[in-house]
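As a representative case, the lines below give one protein's residues and fold tokens.
***
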Amino acid sequence: MNAGAPTLSLFGLLREDLACVFERDPAARHWLEVLLTYPGLHATLMHRISHGLWRRGWRFAARWLSYATRMFTQIDIHPGACIGRRFFIDHGCGVVIGETAVIGNDVTLYHGVTLGGVSWNPGKRHPTLCDGVMVGAGAKILGPVVVGAEVRVGANSVVIQDIPARMTVVGIPGRVVLPDNARRQPQQGIDLDHHLMPDPVGKAVSALLDRIDQLERTLAMMREGQRAESEALVQRSVAEASSRKRLDS
């Protein structure tokens, strides 16, 4: 991960950011349309400029540019955040990225994502996202946690602890639901199917229903066995009574 220290020029970074939109958004049709109408691309470009100002010590200018960008794009990226290459924010509205956040290469965020802090203390207090991470709409990643490479964070999840590489996370708080050897492998490198997240609660309910069906079948078999034993006992009692009656007569 090389976030915060891209080796390309600003124009080169813009070309990469523009190209990655076509790889991850099937609605993108023409480069001019993307360049003029995609707020995520605008916010990324303005952040690269404001981050350069921040690193050179021009803090007020960097904050002012960040503030102006937020007014026009509804995307709030602190100029101190370190962002790698080919970064894509889809739709963008409501995205918040804190000062000490570190984002690797080929990362994708959807609208409503927060990379926030949980402490008022100075120092590292925002998340680190490694290369290839995809964060679904409305997800919150809080604190100085590390999200490993190629992790998929489900929509509206809340991540508050480190996540190993190539895992899938869903829920509140976020839970790892698939091991590395069971995870779906994307066909073209970056997995954008965040609507195909596993449902651990649904799986648990399904398992409970299966267990109830099994118990009901077992109970029905036990009742049938008890009924057969009762009928056999009645028949034996009737036969014994008949035998005693014949002997008495």
